[in-house]
Amino acid sequence: MSERQPLAATRQRVREELRERILTGRLRPGDRLVERELAEDLGVSRVPVREAIRSLEAEGFLVVQSPRRVVVRQLARVDVEELFDVREALEGLAAGLAAERAGAAELTRLERVLAEAARATARGDAARITVLNSRFHDEIVAIAGNALLSTMLQPLEGRLRWLTSQNEHWAELLDEHRRLYDAIASRDADRAKVSAVDHVRVNREVTLRSLFGEEAGERPAG
């Protein structure tokens, strides 16, 4: 049935499915992707699978070690540090702009995401929490209204979402988002920037401990 879809739709479906499997941990760092097996599993030919692999390699999720061996990327500590450095700078900017530009409708959208996140947190629904966390940050970028900023964040979105999913301190995460919302709603750009940067730094610490069992504040020498 899926092969009757327009080719572009099939390509997108396969790419999004494989990305989601990586983001949710069904495909873990080091796991090998086999075109034939994935094509059978997804009910498509090998062509859209091959194209999805190329796309996800460009996004930084996969490593092509040889023509016949493709694996999920194993992030090194330096990869994680660099991603958080960029996230800190860009999300601080986004929050500051959002504080300056948010109207009543935009703040209502953020409130709705937070309310849904609170319900997901109460249920302990990890997958939904991860989706809503990304949506909250996407809304802030949209409110910021800076097309170049949005373009710069787009290729990082998947990897940043994957990193954020490592944070299972859900109640604390919700509280941080509420504080960030309050800062944006105050229309104080400097306060919003500080709140966003603090939030990213907490996430950095949690993620590094989760992935590498280290205290995040201690960067390797050199």
Describe the structure.
The chain is mainly alpha-helical. It has helices spanning 7-23, 35-42, 46-59, 77-101, 104-123, 126-144, 147-153, 157-164, 170-185, 189-212, and strands at residues 32-33, 62-66, 69-72. The chain has a three-stranded antiparallel β-sheet with strand order 1-3-2. A hairpin with a 2-residue loop joins β2 (62-66) and β3 (69-72). The model has no long low-confidence stretch (mean pLDDT 89).
Task: Set out the fold topology.
Blueprint: H1 7-23, E1 32-33, H2 35-42, H3 46-59, E2 62-66, E3 69-72, H4 77-101, H5 104-123, H6 126-144, H7 147-153, H8 157-164, H9 170-185, H10 189-212
Antiparallel strand pairs: 1-3, 2-3
Helix pairs in contact: 1-3, 2-3, 4-6, 4-9, 4-10, 5-6, 5-9, 9-10
Strand order of the largest sheet: 1-3-2
The geometry reads as globular
The overall pLDDT average reads 89
What's the alpha carbon Rg, rounded to whole Å?
Answer: 19 Å
Structural class: mainly alpha
Q: Percent of residues in beta strands?
A: under 5%
Tally of separate helices:
10
Please give the number of β-strands.
3
Order of helices and strands: HEHHEEHHHHHHH
User: Biggest β-sheet, characterized?
Assistant: 3 strands, antiparallel
Please mark out the parts with pLDDT under 50 across 5 or more consecutive residues, or reply none: none
Span between termini? 54 Å
Helical coverage, percent range: over 70%
Distinctive features:
3 strands; 5% strand; single chain; mainly alpha
